[in-house]
Each structure stands twice: as C-alpha cells, then as structure tokens.
Amino acid sequence: MTDKAVKIGFGFFAATSLFFGVVSIKQKINIAVATNPSEDAQTSSEAFNDARLRVLDTDEDGLSDWEELNVHKTSPYLADSDSDGASDRVEIGAGTDPNCPAGRICGSDIIDTITAIQNQAAADEATADSSSAGGATDFSPESQAALDALNQGGMPTPDQIRALLRDSGIPEDQLAETSDEDLIQLFQEVASQQTADQAPPVQ
After folding, report:
1. pTM of this prediction exceeds 0.85
2. Cα separation of 35 and 19, whole Å?
3. CA–CA separation, 20 and 13 (whole Å)
4. Which end of the chain, N or C, is surrounded by fewer C-beta atoms within 10 Å?
5. For the purposes of burial, counting CB atoms within 10 Å of the CB of 40, is it exposed (0-12), middle (13-18) or buried (19 or more)?
6. Phi/psi of residue 140, nearest 5 degrees
7. How confident is the model over 72-120, as pLDDT tens digits?
8. Ranges of each domain in the chain
C-alpha cells in the first residue's frame, strides 16, 4: 500500500470518527435537555402549585391548604386536626392549639409556657439589678430548679417539671393526667426546640 493510500485511509478514518463524535455529543445534549427541565419551567410549576394551594380548602374548614401547611402546620385534609370537636379555624380564632386536643398538655403548651417564664425571669432579674430592694419571683424552688436545668442543658425531674407548669398556670388536673414519661418527653422536645432556635444560621 502506497503512502498516498495510507494517508487517504487515515483521513477517512479521522473524518468518520469526528462525525460520529459530533453526533454522539449532540445526542447527549438532547438527552440532557429532555431529562432536566429548565429553571424557568420549575419556577413556573412551583408558582402554579403555590397559587393552587392558596385557593384550595380541601377540608372546608375556612383555612386554605397553603395556610394549613405553611402557617399552622395542621392537616389540609381534616377540618379538626386534633379531633377534639373544634375545627382548626375555630381553635386558631380562640388562640388555642389546633394540633393539641382540649384538656391535654402538648409540647407547644410547654414551649410557650417556658418561654414566657424565661422572659419574666429575665425581666425580674433586670428589675432586681436596678432596684436596691431587689425583686422576688413567684417560682417555687422546684420550678426554679427545672428552669435552671433547662437553661443549662440538663434534665429536671418530673416533679420539678410539674412544679414549673403548676406555677405557670397549667391546671392541676391536667398535670395529674400526664405521666412522668410524657412530661420528660415533652421537656426534651422543648430543649431540642430551644437548641435549634439558638443555633447560628447555616452560611
């Protein structure tokens, strides 16, 4: 075979390889476009779903599905999420927890109670610092021990938790119906919630 034939054969081979390479790249681009929707399409779809949830009221309780999912954390499929006989809208209007049945102590009750107690304790401490007479709190020693344990990341005893909730206005009959295990679990939820709230934002 002459040098000219070799060169022609090599040129033909190179041209063929280049052609199939271009075809292969084009196919991959087409597949990528077909399987990965554009950001505009995704944004449009999300906006449509958001708008749809804002007008839908699947359980017909007077709250839109969007409000239930994003604001109140209630079920868009149940008019009475906690099944206590009062609809979610009625409970929200009355200032009660639509996710906590009437007559029961729930994690949200304890979180709200302890937050209020801590705010009051901080105000009392500020008052005591600015007054020579000082300021006394209404907490029993058991209540203060429970509050100190929470602030220090520890776990108070069930009796200390009961004292804290009793001093903050939780009815005694509700406390009596709540087991020690449930109180400890709820208090752990409070501690976890406070840890999450105090964590620095992720950059």
Report:
1. no
2. 25
3. 11
4. C
5. exposed
6. -75, 165
7. 889 999 999 989 999 999 999 998 889 888 777 666 666 677 777 767 7
8. 42-94, 107-198
